[in-house]
Structures are given as C-alpha cells and as structure tokens.
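SAMPLE LOG
Freezer: B-3
Tube label: C17
Construct: single chain, 289 aa
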Amino acid sequence: MTNLRRSFFWAAIYLAIILVLGQADYAGRPIINFASYFYLAVMIAVPVTLFFPGLSRVPVYVPLAIWAAIYLVLLQILDRTVSTASIEFPVIVLEFALLESGVWFAFRVAFQISDAESVMDALALGAFPNRVKDIESESLRIKVEFTRSRRYNRPLSLLVLEADYAERIKTREVVKSIQHDLMNRFTLARIGQNIDDRIRQTDLVLKDHRGRFLILCPETELADIILLAKRIETAITERIDLKVRCGVASFPDEALTFDDLMKRAHERLASKESLEDLVVLESTPQEVS
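STRUCTURE (predicted):
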C-alpha cells in the first residue's frame, strides 16, 4: 500500500504542475499557453489508462506509444492558433512530455491497484479455498467440452449464479469502499467453496469479470441443472446468509453454441425467472432458432 500511496502523491503533483504551468501569468500574459487539445488529451488519457484494467496487463510502452501517436496526429490535423498563440517547439515538447508522464503515472497506479486486488483475492482464496477459474483462461476447456457434447450428441448444461448484495446492503450501513470490496471478495470465495462442495469433478466452475459464477456441467439435462441450482442456492443461503440469483440453459434443446448457451442463461438470470417455473421445460422441448 505504501507504493500505491506514493503513486497517488506523484499523480497529484503531476496534475498540480499542469495547473500551475497553465495558469501562471507574468505581466498579465501566460508564461506557458498550452493548446486546448493537450488538456483534452490528458483528461481522456489518464482516466482511460487508470480505469480500464486490461491496460495494466500490457507493457507500459503500449499505452505510451498509443497516446504519443494520438498527440502527434492531433498536432498535425488541428490548428494550434485557435486556442493558443504559442507554437514554439519547446512548448510542444513540454506538452508531449507531460502527456506521456500522465499516462505513465496512471499506468503505475492501475498496476498497483491490480496488485492490491490480487492480494485481496489471494487472502480470500486462502481463507475459503475453491477451484473457481477465470472464464478467459478456460476457453480451450469450454471448447473441448462443447465439441465432445456435440460430437457424441450428449447433453450439456450451464448454470449462471450471481450474488444479490442488495439485500445485504439494505440491512447494514454502507461501509467504506475498500472494506466493501474486501467483503465482496471474501463472499465470492465462500460462494466458490460452497459450489465446490456440490459439484462433480467433471464440472467446470468459472467466474467472469462481473463476479458471476458459471458452472458448465457435461452429461447434464435441464432438469438436473435446475436441481443443482436449487441445492447450491439453499446451501449459500444457509451458510452465508446471502441470496443468489440463478439462470440455466441446456444444450442442445435451447442452444447450439456456448455463446448462445450463456445468452439464454443470462436472459433467465436477468428476468429473475424462478427455478420452479423452469421445471415445466422438462416436458416441453424448446425450439432452437
């Protein structure tokens, strides 16, 4: 956390430098008059680099090169004299350096936030071990399971499960953001542990970027995945005192691809269709469009 605080400090210094340089006057005239597109580039580059987690997973020179190219393109296509009388080369170099510095600071902060989140995930996983994996890392396994089910004409079902934190927030005072985030991570780890206790070794448990669990169950009909969802839902309610929402879908009756399977399960999750209402699907085959 010390490095994270230091990065925030230098980011604040960076913004202060831009503000001071842009507003400092001498004899009623600005000392340095930055172009308006420079301010716009900084206002977009820093938040984009900071708040898009995927950018912290690439080398730092990638966002630096992207924003350097954007600045050079703006320099060529826009008329600086519209917003500033300054067309001196040193001012252009200073704008370029400040933009790149801002991107670098934002990248460092995003990288350290990602590290802090990884530490919290590790703590949560250490307290409540489970075999939940990130959905992006298991794309090959998903493809293999779907190909096998298609080739041998075997059923395969998907259960999407999402924690309902709204009920918990209603019953307690909203805590500080970092505490709330840590609580959610520990809760997700406990949910993963409870899911582990009720699935087979052949089932694949995944988690997406929204914190939703996806359980891919080979050799499982729709009626069976509904029973599994009910067992998991009951266990989580009893052990964690947390409500969850579930959405299910089955191959090949309701979808022919994994993307369609996820879409159907997410539709049921969003519609809050109860599991009891889905039991009728066991005797009512669905047409696949």
